[in-house]
Design brief:
With 115 residues, this protein is an alpha+beta fold. The chain has three helices and three strands. It is 31% helix and 15% strand. The longest helix has 20 residues, at 72-91.
């Protein structure tokens, strides 16, 4: 996969990816995609959240699932996968590498998850 072909090379079109999630009914999932630099496709059904990795390193695909009301374990798994992929991309000269994610779940996601 060439970097220019990667879905994260450009922001999503339409309402997907808008920070306010206006009209989508999935603000939290949209915000999680934004926070990961659009390297994850996030599905949200009630409190179930499933994140599919769209990056390099494992073409077979990786996904993690978690609970909207306790998202810290999901964030830790996403962060670990993205960190491994970032390291692989840098070692192999692949650009753009996935962004480095913060250790803690971003405040905007944490605040919304507790509701």
């Amino acid at each position: 996969m060439q970097a220019r072909d990667h879905p994260a090379a450009a922001p999503p079109s339409g309402t997907r990816g808008q920070a306010d999630g206006a009209g989508t009914g999935r603000w939290w999932a949209d915000r999680l995609e934004l926070e990961t630099g659009y390297w994850w496709l996030v599905l949200q059904v009630d409190e179930l959240v499933i994140a599919f990795y769209r990056g390099y390193w494992n073409p077979a695909g990786i996904y993690h699932s978690g609970n909207l009301h306790d998202p810290q374990p999901l964030w830790a798994n996403i962060r670990q996968t993205q960190r491994q992929s970032r390291r692989w991309a840098i070692q192999n000269g692949i650009h753009p590498p996935p962004p480095e994610l913060s250790r803690e779940l971003p405040d905007a996601l944490q605040a919304e998850a507790g509701r």
